[in-house]
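I have been asked to look over a protein record a colleague put together. Alongside the sequence sits a line of tokens, each denoting a local backbone shape. I have pasted the whole thing underneath without changing anything:
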Amino acid sequence: MDKIAEAVAAAVQAEHEKAARATLGEYLSAKQLEQLTGTKESTWRYWASLDPPQGPPSFRLGRRRVWLTSDVLRWIAEQRQASA
């Protein structure tokens, strides 16, 4: 990709992240990820439990496992590019 295309892609990604955070919040639960992607929440939790973890990075916020919206959107974009 040339520099202009990379800059445009980064700007589009930033806008998507901003809109997603406004709609979904900063952190996503496994249930929200299921609603967003159609992948079962148990799969999201399973991926997080593997060593090394699969999928986007997650962490514990108190007793809840959560994913940063920006990390999830970036991971989805990477999956789309890898399968294209």
